[in-house]
Amino acid sequence: MQSKILTPKFIFVTMAILLAAISRLLPHPPNFTPIAAMALFGGAGMVNKKFAFIIPLLAMFISDCIIQLISGTGFHNTMFFVYACFALTVWLGFRLRENNTAGRTILLSVISACIFFIVTNLATWWFEGTNGAPLYTHDLSGLISCFVAAIPFYNNSVFGSFFLNTILGDLFYCGILFGSLYFAKSKFPALA
Fold this sequence. Notes:
Elements: H1 8-23, H2 35-45, H3 49-71, H4 79-94, H5 102-127, E1 129-130, E2 133-134, H6 140-153, H7 162-187
Antiparallel strand pairs: 1-2
């Protein structure tokens, strides 16, 4: 008898998330990654809410560990906030469970990218620094400086901006993940 958790859909969604995580190890433009798409897809595609959080975040953690081993850039001081953003994105994915349309997926993908930009830059503003000295002053001027400094960070690739790197990366990978499940469901009804 088949387990309620280990269904064909669970296996498909888990494998898709793991493949997306592996793609982080391939050369890619900065911030053009599948992470937010993995989290949104996990939230929408996993029936069990506990696994909806565990699978994408674990896949991200494992790929971060590999990136750390390869290049030393997998982890940094504000990783908690990065992971919190993606946990929030899983929660946003729950909003797609009953009414998953392309428009809603696009909207939530854009919202998750914006949340990531805002939260991680707030964390950088407050927590980053060297030798005990903050990188930015903890006032409105420092906050503005941090966000202004963040914009060129997203501008250092062929694609050229926050919108093209982060948002289009999220949309691209959401298209692949959600599109592959949609296509697979049409061919294999057991995935529905």
